[in-house]
Structure formats: structure tokens, C-alpha cells
Amino acid sequence: DVSFLYIGEDVKPFTPEETKEIVMSLQQPAVFYNMVGDWPALHWNVEYLSAVLGGKTIQFRIGLKTVDLAPQFETSCSYVKATLDEFLAWSCGQPSCLSGPFRCYEYSKYWAYADYKYIARIFEDKPEIFKDVRWSDFGFSGRTGKDSTLWIGSEGANTPCHLDSYGCNLVLQVQGRKRWHLFPPSDTSFLYPTRIPYEESSVFSKVNVANPDLKRFPQFKNTTAHVVTLSPGQVLLVPRHWWHYVESIDPITVSVNSWIELDADHEARVEEAITRMLVCAIKSAENPSDEDLWLNPTEVEATSHETNLQYLNKAVSAYFSCQKTDVPEQAHPSS
């Protein structure tokens, strides 16, 4: 049938059931096209979001555009609270009086990133906006903007190379383009993983993948980078435990993402609980006057040993509960 040739932009290439199967089983990164053309969230450019938020301020991370050999971890960045109007004024090069909190940071030398903002929190007084994001098209019924995070950046804004301990990641690009440098789990030893700065569920690389120091990290040359430029209307799947370094390459970028839980997360939560307990114990004993400088800003404070033990206990209990319900009787027990 000749009409088949014209099926495309208005017809999604996969059903929700097919998409979910791809997301849950694929071990390689993938970009989905023509899956979100009818999502109202595609209109979430910064001007629109600014109008919705009104004068509400959000926190921006400020970093230097100069690329050093060392990664620009969040612990070494500055932070300002500003409205999206002020962010727009600053990124357009308007007078400093209009850009308020950004006036100390010259646009040509710095970037700003409002990253990891829970949509449920910043739009708590406008819950109707959650429906603009429809992860149900990917087979996750009931998952909306309420289960997602928002990322707004200027050119050069970046996230240091890291892997997420939990789940896989679906990322919708709304405005501008972002470049993703992705590395498979098998490259882990070549990326020199570290838990300092400490953040639950994030393992950072000591290497600045945008400008690697091969004298300090010679094994990095053995990595295999998968580089993807994500454009508006496209959705990227980042499979479990894939490393990623992300940079904004247009003057303004907006993305929305959601982490999809996986069965393997139960085991990962036990590993993370042990890591939390060890890192907190070691760093607290190392130098009590260190004022938690080893904590990523996303971690508010170092928790007590007792709290960490409770956390571990809950993670182990959840893991064994999952084993009982998921593993057939004849299967040999997990170590």
C-alpha cells in the first residue's frame, strides 16, 4: 500500500508496550525519534517556564567555561538563586541590573545550570503542568512530569562524568542541544571511579573526559566513547550503569528526564547503603573539622552511623523480600 510511505511523523514508531520492552532490555544507548510530537512539554522553553513560575527563584550552579584538566565537580562551583527572567537577561547579555544575582559572573567566562530540579517540587502549586510529560507513551503508565526532573542550562553548562547506581534514564530534549559522551559499564576501570565527592547513587570519574589528563589517567585511552548530540523532540535512553558526561552546546538548553526503576536496583541499594556507611565513617573520623567538604551539594549532611545502619538494614530487608517474590523455589540462593 503506497500510503504506508507517508506514515511517519503523526504515527509513533512503537506502541507503549514495544517501547517499554526496548527500554527495559536494551543494553546500548538509543535515541527515539517521533515519539513525543504531541507532548505539551515540547513547548517548555525558558520563556514559557518563566511565565509559569512567575517570580519564583531557583538555584543555579555556576561554573567556568575554561576547560581544566580536572573535572569541575559541583563542590567547586558557586551557587546563586535567581528567577528565570534574570537567567534570560544574563544569557542575552543585558545590563547587570536586569540579571541580578548573575551580575558578578561574566557570560563569556561562566555558565549557569539549574540542574536536577524535581518538577513535583518547583511546580507544586501548578500540578496540572505534570500532565504535559507523558512517559505512558514509553509504556510507563501513570508516569508524568511529577516523576521527572528539569534541567536548564546556558552554553557550556555540564555535568561531570558519572554513572547512576539506580535504574536506567530517559531524557527528553526540549530546547537547544546537548552533547552526551557515553561510556559502557565495561569501561569503568578506565574511568578511575571515585566516591568523593560523595552523593548517593552517583559514582564520579576522576577524569575530565572533555580534556583528559593522560599522564595521571593513562588507562582512559582504552575507553570507547559513544557521542550523541540530542536535539529538541528526541528522547535518549541511557541504559543501566552507562557513564555519561553531558554538556550544553547551545545558548540555552532545557531537558526533562525520568529514572526508570529496575529489579537490579534492590541489590544496588544494599551496595549504596554500605558505601554510605563506610564513606561517612571514614571521612568523619579523618578530620572532624572538614565541614563535610567531601559531600556533593545534593547531599545535605553526613548522616550518623546509627542512621546509616538503619538504612542498610532496610535495604537488605527489601532485597531479600524481592528475592522471595521473584526467585523460583528451585533457583539457588544468591550469595
Automatic annotation (TrEMBL):
InterPro entries: Cupin_8 (IPR041667), HSPB1-associated_protein_1 (IPR013296), JmjC_dom (IPR003347)
Signal peptide: none
Location (main, coarse): cytoplasm
Stated name of the protein: HSPB1-associated protein 1
Function in brief: May play a role in cellular stress response.
SUPFAM superfamilies: Clavaminate synthase-like
UniProt cross-references to Gene3D superfamilies, sorted A to Z: Cupin
Keywords: Cytoplasm
UniProt keyword Endoplasmic reticulum present: no
Localisation per UniProt entry: Cytoplasm
Any one of the GO CC terms: cytoplasm
Keyword Protein biosynthesis: no
Segments forming domain JmjC: 111-275
Superkingdom in the source lineage: Eukaryota
